[in-house]
Each structure stands twice: as C-alpha cells, then as structure tokens.
Amino acid sequence: MPEQPSRAVVAAGVLAMFMFSANFAATGHALAEGLSVPDLVFLRYGTAGPLFLLLLLRIGLGGLAWWRAVVLAALGGAPYFLLTAVALRFAPAVHASILNPGGTMIFAPLLAWWLLRTPPEIGVRIGLPVIAAGLLLIGGAGLGEGGGKVWIGDLMVLASGFNWALYGVLMRRWEVSGLRAAAIIGAVSLAWVPVHLIVFGIDGVAAHPAEALRQAGYQGLIAGGLAIILYSRAVVAMGPARAALLPPLVPALGVLWAWLLLGEHVTPMQVAGMVTVIAGMLCGALWRRR
Questions:
Q1: Could you tell me the pTM of the whole model?
Q2: b/e per residue, 154-182, with b = 16+ CB within 10 A?
Q3: Rounded Cα distance, 95 and 244, in Å
Q4: Which of 4, 88, 21 is nearest to 227 (CA)?
Q5: Which of 268, 289, 228, 287 lies closest to 51 in space, CA to CA?
Q6: Which of 16, 160, 169, 182 could make an SS bond with 231 (beta carbons 3.0 to 4.6 A apart)?
Q7: In the chain, which residues have pLDDT < 70?
Q8: pLDDT recorded at residue 279
Q9: What pLDDT is attached to residue 2?
Q10: Cβ atoms < 10 Å from Cβ of 60
Q11: Residue 69 and residue 220: Cα distance in Å, rounded?
Q12: Helix 178-189 / helix 150-173 crossing angle, nearest 10 deg
C-alpha cells in the first residue's frame, strides 16, 4: 500500500494545477493577440527545453532506457500539447476543459490497477463520482452543445487525457523521479523547435513580441516548467490513482482565471461545481482506510 501523502505533497500538486489552470485563459488571450497554436508550442518548449536539457545532462537518465524516455516525452510533452490544441479546432474549449482532466481521472486508476496491480483505495472510489458531479456542474449545458465534427475533437481530448494518465502510471512503473521525468519531457520536446522553424518560421512570433514574451514566461517557465516538475513529483509521492484526482482542479480553477483575466461571467452553478471538485479531490487524495 502506498504511504499516505503529506500535506506538502498535496499542496505541491494543487499548486501545479493552479499553474496549469491559467492555460485556457492565457491561450485564448494569445490567439486573440495574433499568435498561432504552433507559435505557442514553439514558445513553450523553446523556453523550457534548453533549461531542461541542461538539467538532464546533469542528472542523466538514471538507468532509464532511451526509448522509455521518448515514450514519456510523447505522452506528456509536445505531442500531448499539440493533440489538445488540434482538438480545439473541432470541439469548443468547454469540452476540452472537462473531458481532458475527466479522461485522466477515469483512466489513471484503471491503468494503475492493470499495470501496477494497485486497486483504487476507498477515498479514490468515493472522490471520483464527487468530482464527476462537480465537472458536470461546471460544464453545464455546454457539454451538449455543438454538432458536425465536434465528436472528433471530443475523442481527441479524451485521448489526451488517456495520454496524461498513462504518463503518470509509466513514470511510477519505471521508477522515474518527478524531476527527471520533467527534464526528459522538456529536453526531448526541444526537438519541436527546429521543426517549427522549418515549417512555420519565426514571423508569427516576431510580429507580436510583447505577447510572445508573456507567453514564453507562462507557457515555458510556469506551465511547461515548474508545474510539470511539481505534478510529476506529486505522482511519484501520491501514486497515479490519487494524483489523477488533481487535474479536475484545472477546469474548476480555470473558471476563476476566465473571470479574472477575461472578464467572463461565472454562474452560481459553476461556483458550486468548483467547490464540489475540490471536495472530491481532497477526499480522494487524503482519505484512505487504515
């Protein structure tokens, strides 16, 4: 049985989700200012990648096979970010904000049960339906909106949630530390930079220097750097099943960011959903039968 996570570990995971949760508002602001999705990927890994590469050169792979490092980077790095971004071309953001963390929440305990032989604990079993109810309150009728090819985007978002869940489980199975896993993601994803320069060029970034600088700070150093380290360490300490209860905080906190940064209206139902998600997360992360 995994040890009860300390409050500091849970706090670190929650802080990571707080950092991740501004992504939807920050991305919406960047797109409105003229940057493209490839530009955001370029800024994210062009900023964090060199720092993580230096870190990885210092600490090494720790005996991890190179192909396993590539798998972790594909599940949690640039391909993951691109999959989610492309999905938004078909499905609205409200779908992504619910289905991505919802997919992680569902798949991580199942994958941990299958690959790690660790059945979900009582707190996780109780916390999952509570979080699901909170997500439905946040999404409201928005989850039923859209037609045509929206289902394609929904499936892609669910796939990205599966990828994030598998990343956490494999990191635990292969005994990769949180810091090393974050370094691997950033260093390997640095390969996107030359691809971007060849295919898309630098004109889009150069045309909006102020916004590019802001996004490099957030996407690269905060969401693509520090938040990845904190979340990866939380997965190692809490286990993938309990750590999977953290991502649903992203849409809950994302509503708050949308209100603060974009001036979007927050309904009483969404506030109730935020409280419900947080209650379910705390139940699953901290409660276990002794």
A1: 0.80
A2: bebbbbbbbbbbbbbbbbbebebebbbbb
A3: 18
A4: 21
A5: 228
A6: 16
A7: 1-6, 24, 92-95, 138-148, 255, 258-259, 261-266, 282, 284-290
A8: 78
A9: 47
A10: 10
A11: 20
A12: 130
What number of other Cβ atoms are within 10 A of residue 53's Cβ?
16
Structure tokens that stand for 149 in this block: 């090819």
Q: How far apart are CA 267 and CA 258, in angstroms?
A: 12
Segment 202-231, tens digit of pLDDT: 999 999 999 999 999 998 899 888 988 888
Amino acid at 33: E
- Cβ pair 140, 134 in contact under 8 A: no
Token look-up 């640039």 returns 78
Neighbours of 79 (CB within 10 A): 17
CA distance 44 to 186: 9
- Going by C-alpha positions, the residue among 19, 1, 39 that lies closest to residue 230 is 19
